[in-house]
Specification:
CATH class of the domain at 54-149: Alpha Beta
Structural class: alpha/beta
Strand content: 15-25%
Order of helices and strands: HHHEEEHEHHE
CATH architecture of the domain at 54-149: 2-Layer Sandwich
CATH superfamily of the domain at 54-149: Ribonuclease H-like superfamily/Ribonuclease H
Largest sheet: 5 strands, mixed
Strand order of the largest sheet: 3-2-1-4-5
């Protein structure tokens, strides 16, 4: 891939960007060798009590820039599997995530019972902890690169 790109393009972080792109590529993730013990079994997410009661929040980062946006906030309802997407920037703050949730999801679907997120910096910050605490939302954190917590 690097040789093909180098024929027409160059930028200072070319090699690092290609490594990052490949690492985040869905086909690569599906085909890479898994290094987990065969005896470990997957544990699916619990069955939701109803629409928008249990949700997952994540941020897809390092996308090609469009109108200064290079990331997407992804919110998924566990019950009806509805996906809600919001274009944003990679350096989004936890306060901004909370405001997006308040303005775009909460007003339509109410407050969830549980939020599952990874341990990304925006989702681990004190603001997100306070947001869930004040609203009485159970916060469940998944372990990075540990498929048993992915549902």
């Amino acid at each position: 891939m690097m040789e093909l790109l180098k024929q027409n393009y160059w930028w200072p972080e070319l090699k690092e960007d290609i490594k990052k792109y490949i690492w985040e590529c869905i086909k690569y993730q599906q085909n890479k060798v898994q290094h987990q013990k065969k005896s470990e079994e997957l544990h699916p997410l619990e069955i939701s009590q109803g629409p928008w009661q249990e949700i997952s929040i994540d941020i897809v980062r390092s996308l090609p820039k469009f109108n200064r946006m290079d990331a997407i906030v992804v919110i998924v309802d566990w019950f009806i599997k509805m996906i809600w997407l919001k274009a944003t920037t990679t350096n989004i703050s936890s306060e901004r995530i909370a405001k997006i949730y308040r303005d775009e999801i909460w007003k339509l679907h109410g407050i969830p019972r549980k939020i599952l997120s990874d341990r990304g910096p925006q989702l681990m910050l004190k603001c997100m902890e306070e947001f869930t605490k004040v609203l009485g939302i159970t916060r469940q954190l998944s372990t990075t690169y540990y498929s048993q917590t992915d549902g």
